[in-house]
Amino acid sequence: xxxxxxxxxxxxxxxxxxxxxxxxxxxxxxxxxxxxxxxxxxxxxxxxxxxxxxxxxxxxxxxxxxxxxxxxxxxxxxxxxxxxxxxxxxxxxxxxxxxxxxxxxxxxxxxxxxxxxxxxxxxxxxxxxxxxxxxxxxxxxxxxxxxxxxxxxxxxxxxxxxxxxxxxxxxxxxxxxxxxxxxxxxxxxxxxxxxxxxxxxxxxxxxxxxxxxxxxxxxxxxxxxxxxxxxxxxxxxxxxxxxxxxxxxxxxxxxxxxxxxxxxxxxxxxxxxxxxxxxxx
Length: 281
What we know:
Blueprint: H1 5-23, H2 27-34, H3 38-45, H4 53-62, H5 67-79, H6 95-104, E1 109-114, H7 125-135, H8 141-154, E2 165-171, H9 172-176, H10 182-195, E3 201-206, E4 220-224, E5 232-237, E6 240-244, H11 247-263, H12 267-277
Parallel strand pairs: 1-2, 2-3
Antiparallel strand pairs: 1-4, 4-5, 5-6
Domain HTH cro/C1-type: 16-70
Organism: Streptomyces lutosisoli
Protein name: Helix-turn-helix domain-containing protein
């Protein structure tokens, strides 16, 4: 899968830091050699803001990078300026959603734990409208439809030529919670069963009988990049979301998801339970 701007930017920062440390230079020493400040070089390495490819070229030469490494990083620096489809939207979107769309445009997998609602990538329009109307109490109908349109657009990643693997562990409470009325909920559960049949979508239900488990604090998603160090954790909060990428944070959530998937019903048993709850059995 081709990498997008955020993945390129994050990869660039990680590689620049690796090359500098391989050379044995501090941030201050490396910056002084190519005429940029310590703060600017730190920003380059921590993946924040834009980069200038001539500076990246100079750094690579100073670090003694191979010709292959130098050309690859210069291309990363140039490609990091490409913008995603959502940047051209007429109406603004929350910054947390902007980052989510950017990351999701580049993922190779997503591991979701959902305790309140069906994950957004697997929602029907009617279900998504009901969720937004309930959670965005100060938004008017136009704003709600704008956010729902974006959610529906996000789902196009499921139809990519090389789609990411979407693995969802859904709490039984989210399956049983009636959102938008019985008709809307039944449509949602039927859609969940249909999409779960895609080869790149895995759906498991975490039953009430599990009792206490590894993620009782709330929903989260591990967004997987082309390499493990480019993974990001997204955690739902009121009014937005938190993004975490420190190794210890990533490891904690990866482990939590492993435990949750082990505790959840298998795929076939999950489908039977969803079918039963939908009232179609």
